[in-house]
């Protein structure tokens, strides 16, 4: 599920500042071997399953691995985790209303 029109996709920021802000909002930057992209996840464990609010971005300049980069964020996604396959974001996924409301609130804070 995409959260269009949040304004997050218009945000461009220094990686270190972005890491600090995202961590303070409950997001964790995924450890990955990528010098051009970042992924921030906020995990929701519910009776209905495990879900992730994900905000990805890419380096417009610099190197993510060296922690010296300027990042352009992309449209936030909400996905459901399926073991062992991973996270699915498809339009056919069902998301609890409380999760959607909580995700929207977190994106607008």
Automatic annotation (TrEMBL):
Pfam families: YugN (PF08868). InterPro entries: Uncharacterised_YugN-like (IPR014967), YugN-like_sf (IPR036491). It comes from the Bacteria. SUPFAM superfamilies: YugN-like. This is YugN-like family protein. It comes from Bacillus safensis.
